[in-house]
TrEMBL record, chain B:
PANTHER family referenced in this protein's UniProt entry, alphabetically: SPERMIDINE/PUTRESCINE IMPORT ATP-BINDING PROTEIN POTA (PTHR42781), SPERMIDINE_PUTRESCINE IMPORT ATP-BINDING PROTEIN POTA (PTHR42781:SF4)
Claim: Transport is one of the keywords in the record: yes
Record GO terms (molecular function): ATP binding; ATP hydrolysis activity; transmembrane transporter activity
GO cellular component, one term: ATP-binding cassette (ABC) transporter complex
Record-linked InterPro entries: AAA+_ATPase, ABC_SmlMolc_Importer, ABC_transporter-like_ATP-bd, ABC_transporter-like_CS, Mo/tungstate-bd_C_term_dom, P-loop_NTPase, Transp-assoc_OB_typ2
Organism: Salibaculum griseiflavum
UniProt KW keywords: ATP-binding, Nucleotide-binding, Transport
GO biological process, one term: putrescine transport
Protein name, per record: Fe3+/spermidine/putrescine ABC transporter ATP-binding protein
Pfam families: ABC_tran, TOBE_2
Automatic annotation (TrEMBL), chain C:
GO cellular component: plasma membrane
Coiled-coil positions: none
PANTHER family membership: PUTRESCINE TRANSPORT SYSTEM PERMEASE PROTEIN POTI
InterPro entries per record: Bact_Polyamine_Transport, MetI-like, MetI-like_sf
UniProt KW keywords: Cell membrane, Membrane, Transmembrane, Transmembrane helix, Transport
Name recorded for this polypeptide: Spermidine/putrescine ABC transporter
Pfam families linked: BPD_transp_1
Domain ABC transmembrane type-1: 58-247
Gene Ontology terms: biological process: transmembrane transport
Family statement: Belongs to the binding-protein-dependent transport system permease family. CysTW subfamily.
């Protein structure tokens, strides 16, 4: 849950009336002193900059001079321009697809490690899963390009074994390539939260369910899955949110149809030198991510009895 | 000699009144227990004495010195924590010698002191072991040695036996009493286990809702609880309704089902006014009369309602005319004494001297 | 569950596919990164020692990563320690703000810092700006790792040290610090690794001296240098695996020291 809404929500939740009335405990005082440096850091380097781009999004820029008159013109322009809207829509769609694919692929792995791996070997499996992701992201994305390319590893081997005659062309320089690459990039971020949720499930609950006449499949659907939902929700958010902000993968493997809003934000800031427009797009991206996330959380609470 | 004196101690956590007007004096060399259900404030009280919590109002004096503003590291108290708080990264000897770091002693003296402390708690030769390799009972001994090595004026024990199994717990109770006599240090024990408190203490303060309900030696506490609440918390007790008719050195009282009795004034909580009153009677002061048995005590007809067999004892619930709730009584299972069946008509012997008048 | 096991192994192949390719191309005797492979060579590793620009970028990245690791771990210790303390007003929102970068697209952090630094304060971009930003995004990870270490601590341990005559500071030094040391080392390594690999923010905020990922990004459009990058990538992968293995071993040792069962996992 990114952005201001979250910030606002936690601020509102954090103020308990009795805290303001009552005196600080000794331990609370020490906590406050200790939290000051990291909090001041986050305030200065995160809250202030976020507020600044919000402000910038209401300003305009003409070549090098910034016009600080308050205006909605950036937003009108953004909403009026089919290119921006198409990029935003595509970003949300791609991020959605990446999320669905990543989480669906990740769930069985998390389930396997949690339920079918001996306890003493679990951390080895987790270690194996995490290792590839501490290696250079850029190089990894580039290597996917090598794998998926026209003369790439995949096509060569498929032709080699005689499964296809012509190299497949729908797997590189389009949205599919972006989805595959990002599903790879975010794998551990999806596996770990689901694994943690599955680990917390008391195994005797499953035995109780079997004892009460459910089959293994219905036990999975009625007990395991609902209890794993907090992990799934965390996985969905952890994958979905940063995906919107990625511009490396679309640029390298996305081709012209795979570009996303982050590429445009980058262009506005670094090429067109239009910071206010870039800020506006950044704010819009953030708002739409927040909106989608909140809707997802709401749906989950409403229909899947997910975490409160 | 009074070692610890608490007067008018109050403590709030937000809106929660954790300690209410605590007045307490503990003597040098006493084994004192704070007994009560969870959330009654006993641990908070112990922690204010240790200096981990400051008091809202009132004062704590240890050995005549006001403890206001004195940190836990500077107080003449040491604590055995509920979790024992054994430092997991240090060996047994390093744990025990932890508090000697600043002591004005040579290395040899420290080593000797640690060895003696370990001997004292029966862990001689365990010094080199890793703290993690110890059992629950051993950890507890290390915690004791670590606190006692500093020769505190007061040793504070926060539910020290609650994490042990029944057998070891009973063994440690005896060892703790012996140890306390040996070192002569004042012990203050926090416990929710009434039996433990009765077994170990010279005096017990029973706490409810942040206040002290009754403070007495174990026998007085058991025999003459001053309120229904204390009576309920300590041991088993039958409660009967009664009506005080006349007061004096002997209190005249009508008890439901048992009729007119006279009770010694010391069996009542201070002054008693004529009117309704609650009367307590312990199960072991009642006894069943078997076929043909006679007694010099008073007797009343009863019907066996429930039988619970404990091996050494049998607990009976019996119905007596005029009392709504069955009376519980306990009988030793002596040789030749039968266990009665439910529904048996019988008689119960009782004694006026075992009646206690209770406040609220 | 045979099917699941096969799936798990297939998934691992998917995860490791790109990493397997890395050494193949690093030792491949060809200018382009494509199949078929030509032959074995260590030429690209030799080239690596001659490429001054690349070396400079690596050195730059190492400086940034080391500074970030130290800064974010120190701030993380403060925050993780504070989190174990009793409540104070606004505790949750304060912690929320500090953890926010975890759920914020990196490009947002990048552009907002860019605007503040360049447009508002008129400052130049340098390694310092990248370190500042990397510390911001690494801090939540440090806190997550350290939280585990601090929360596993029995609060009575500190009280016991105080009770035995130590001051707050010496209790921290003698009891808490040694017990959370494995967590601190994990935090240092994780922040270091994140910073070393981070591209999105570094691209926006780097000054005259590019970081390693920024330099590689530049090369991706001029493929002539790519085999050298593969060689360096191979070295870095090997290095990461070594570092992470150490971190994992430290974590296990920490658990053992605290007398806890291994529940698995870094994060």
């Amino acid at each position: 849950m990114p952005g201001f809404f979250v910030l606002l929500r936690i601020v509102l939740q954090g103020i308990k009336p009795d805290m303001l009335r009552g005196r600080l405990t000794e331990s609370g005082k020490r906590g406050l002193v200790l939290i000051s440096p990291p909090f001041a850091y986050a305030l200065l380097l995160l809250a202030v900059p976020l507020a600044t781009i919000l402000l910038f999004s209401f300003w305009t820029q003409d070549y090098l001079t910034i016009d600080t008159t308050f205006t909605f013109s950036n937003y009108t322009e953004a909403f009026g321009d089919p290119l921006y809207m198409a990029l935003l829509r595509r970003s949300l769609l791609i991020a959605g697809a990446v999320t669905v694919v990543t989480v669906l692929l990740a769930f069985p792995i998390a389930y396997f490690v949690s339920f079918h791996v001996q306890p003493s070997r679990k951390s080895l499996w987790l270690f194996l899963i995490t290792i590839p992701f501490w290696t250079s992201y850029l190089i990894r994305v580039f290597l996917w390009k090598v794998i998926l390319g026209y003369n790439g590893v995949l096509n060569s081997s498929l032709i080699g074994v005689g499964l296809i005659d012509e190299p497949l062309s729908f797997i590189l320089y389009n949205a599919n390539a972006v989805v595959i690459t990002l599903a790879h990039a975010f794998a551990p971020f999806a596996i770990l939260p689901i694994f943690v949720a599955l680990e917390k499930i008391d195994r005797s609950l499953l035995e109780a369910s079997l004892d009460l006449g459910e089959t293994r499949v219905t036990t999975f659907l009625r007990v395991t899955l609902p209890l794993a939902m907090p992990g799934v929700v965390a996985a969905v958010l952890i994958v979905f949110i940063p995906t919107i902000g990625d511009y490396v993968t679309p640029r390298l493997v996305g081709g012209p149809d795979g570009l996303m809003i982050a590429n445009m934000i980058q262009t506005q800031f670094l090429k067109l030198n239009n910071a206010p427009m870039g800020a506006t797009l950044a704010i819009l991206a953030m708002l739409s991510v927040t909106a989608v996330s909140l809707v997802f959380i709401w749906l989950n609470r409403r229909w899947l009895r997910g975490p409160k | 000699m009074t070692l610890i004196q608490l007067s008018g101690v109050n403590k709030h956590f937000g809106d929660y009144h954790a300690l209410r007007d605590i007045d307490l004096e503990i003597q040098q060399g006493e084994f004192f227990s704070l007994l009560g259900p969870s959330g009654c404030g006993k641990t908070t009280l112990l922690r204010t004495i240790a200096g981990f919590e400051d008091v809202g109002s009132g004062s704590i004096r240890i050995d005549g010195r006001d403890m206001k503003g004195v940190g836990p590291n500077l107080r003449p108290t040491n604590m055995v924590f509920q979790s024992y708080a054994i430092f997991p990264h240090l060996s047994v000897a390093e744990n025990v010698g932890f508090g000697l770091r600043r002591a004005d002693m040579t290395r040899d003296e420290k080593t000797r002191a640690v060895g003696e402390a370990l001997e004292m708690v029966g862990l001689g030769g365990y010094g080199g072991r890793a703290a993690n390799a110890l059992s629950g009972g051993q950890r507890q001994r290390v915690a004791l040695a670590r606190a006692l090595i500093l020769k505190p004026k007061v040793l504070l024990l926060d539910e020290p036996l609650s994490a042990l199994d029944k057998k070891i717990r009973e063994q440690m109770q005896v060892e703790l009493i012996k140890l306390q006599r040996e070192v002569g240090i004042t012990f203050i024990l926090v416990t929710h286990d009434q039996e433990e408190a009765l077994v170990m203490s010279d005096r017990i303060a029973v706490m409810f809702d942040g206040g002290i309900g009754q403070m007495d030696d174990p026998e007085t506490l058991y025999r003459r609880p001053r309120s229904k609440r204390v009576a309920q918390f300590i041991g088993m007790m039958n409660f009967l309704d009664g009506e005080v008719a006349a007061t004096g050195t002997e209190i005249e009282v009508t008890v439901q089902g048992l009729g007119r009795c006279s009770v010694a004034a010391e069996q009542a909580p201070g002054a008693v006014a004529p009117g309704p009153v609650s009367i307590g009677i312990r199960p072991e002061t009642l006894s069943l009369l078997f076929e043909g048995e006679t007694t010099t005590r008073k007797e009343v007809a009863a019907v066996v309602d429930e039988v619970v067999y404990y091996g050494d004892m049998t607990y009976y619930d019996v119905r007596v005319d005029g009392i709504e709730k069955p009376l519980t009584l306990s009988m030793k299972n002596l040789i030749g004494r039968p266990v009665l069946d439910v529904g048996t008509q019988t008689r119960v012997a009782w004694d006026e001297r075992s009646l206690v008048l209770l406040g609220h | 569950m045979r099917g699941l096991r096969i799936y798990a192994i297939a998934y691992l192949v998917f995860l490791y596919a790109p990493i397997f390719l890395l050494p193949l191309f690093a030792f491949n005797d060809a200018d382009i990164i494509a199949f078929p492979l030509s032959g074995f060579t260590t030429h690209w590793f030799e080239e690596l020692t001659r490429n001054a620009a690349l070396q400079a970028a690596v050195r730059n990245s190492l400086i940034i990563a080391a500074s970030t690791a130290v800064l974010s771990t120190i701030l993380g210790i403060c925050a993780a320690r504070a989190a174990t303390m009793a409540d104070w007003p606004l505790k949750r929102p304060m912690m929320g703000l500090i953890m926010l970068p975890l759920v914020l697209p990196e490009i947002i952090v990048a552009v907002s810092l860019l605007v503040v630094i360049v447009q508002v304060f008129g400052l130049g971009l340098s390694n310092a700006t990248i370190i500042a930003a990397h510390t911001l995004i690494c801090m939540p990870f440090s806190i997550a790792v350290l939280n585990g270490a601090f929360q596993n601590l029995d609060p009575a341990l500190e009280e016991a040290a105080l009770d035995l005559g130590e001051s707050r500071w010496s209790a921290f030094r003698l009891v808490i610090l040694p017990l959370v040391m494995p967590g601190i080392i994990s935090s240092l390594l994780i922040s270091f690794t994140i910073s070393l690999d981070e591209f999105i923010i570094a691209f926006f905020l780097s000054g005259a001296n590019p970081t390693m990922p920024v330099y590689i990004w530049g090369l991706l459009r001029f493929p002539g240098q790519l085999p050298v990058v593969m060689a360096m990538g191979t070295i870095l992968v090997a290095l990461s695996i070594i570092l992470l293995t150490i971190a994992e071993l430290m974590r296990r040792r920490g658990l053992k020291r605290a007398g806890l069962k291994d529940t698995g996992g870094f994060l």
